[in-house]
Amino acid sequence: MDWSKFNNLSILIIDDDQFTRELIETILKKIPNITIYQATDGVEALSIINEVSLDMVFLDLYMPNMDGKAFMDSLRESGNSESFPIVLITTDRLTRSELSEIGANHYLTKPFDFNSFLKKTYSFLENFK
User: Fold this and answer.
1) Is pTM, for the whole model, over 0.85?
2) Fold classification of 7-127 (topology level)
């Protein structure tokens, strides 16, 4: 995987579970020239999105305050939902129609396999329009 072609990636991890956020960050730190942001819910994430330019978002579906679905609704209303790939992080298996209904591009299921997570992240970035 040639990560250098993505130039200084900025990725946001949105999850209310600190362990999950830190696990994803640990995996992503294997990517050179990356900046990682974390948010504990959709409200905090929207604030970050308004301040920085992002290349990808990992989004937990079930969170307090503003869950993943409500976050996606707010993102669509602001016109930012097409700016970067959004990958749902969930224990559920989702169909394409469920994923489309939520508005995310992809999903990954917990628990994560380290190598698979990086390969899929690379693929999601590479194939994003």
Assistant:
1) yes
2) Rossmann fold (3.40.50)
